[in-house]
Design goal:
- The protein is of the alpha/beta class.
- It has helices at about 5-15, 40-50, 65-75, 110-115, 145-150, 165-170; strands at about 55-60, 80-85, 100, 115-120, 125, 130-135, 150-160, 160-165, 180, 185-190, 195, 205-210.
- The chain has a single domain, classed as Rossmann fold, CATH 3.40.50.10420.
- InterPro entries: FTHF_cligase-like_sf (IPR024185), LUD_dom (IPR003741), NagB/RpiA_transferase-like (IPR037171).
- Pfam families: LUD_dom.
- This is LUD domain-containing protein.
Amino acid sequence: MTARDEVLARLRAARDAGGSTSPAVPREYRRTGTLPPGSAAAVARLDETLTDYKAAVHRVRTEDEVPGAIAAVLRDAGATSIVVPAGLPAAWLTAYDGEVRTDGPPLSVADLDATDAVVTGGAVAIADTGTFVLDARAPDQGRRAISLVPDHHVCVLRADAVVSSVPEALARLDPDGPLTFVSGPSATSDIELDRVEGVHGPRRLDVVLVGPV
């Protein structure tokens, strides 16, 4: 039986039941990925898929190396000012010597637009798709605007936040709050397939990936 035949058979069964009952819907979805969460293999796969999406990935082994990695990325980009969520670990910025603007109270859109970059953490990352998710209620990630208005986003992701598949990521997230899914720098293409970056968010994305190298 083809997929089309199966769909039509279900529609006929529903019609014949007169709407009083519905045929059972299979829910045998794959809920786990092929790589263990937080494993070296999952982190390596995330590195690969993020890079494929034109994000720059910077691998460090421990969180002690995060401040230097962030400072190097910002220095390379010429960022003299950054915005950070109120709960970002202060230790992450000890090597950065530019202006740090904390989004608390919330900065105006004009202030965000005048800031060179934003530095955040991440809630979860999906190795199979090269996607990470920001939870607006998390103190190290902050409200959605700070990750969309500045032209450069630096995100720190820990290995224990890396899962293989989308179902695993969704199981870790609370859908009742604002979530932002990020797959590479903001980009779009017109009908001629000319790629334009920075239309709906940052045109540059750097990910500091903390875990086994």
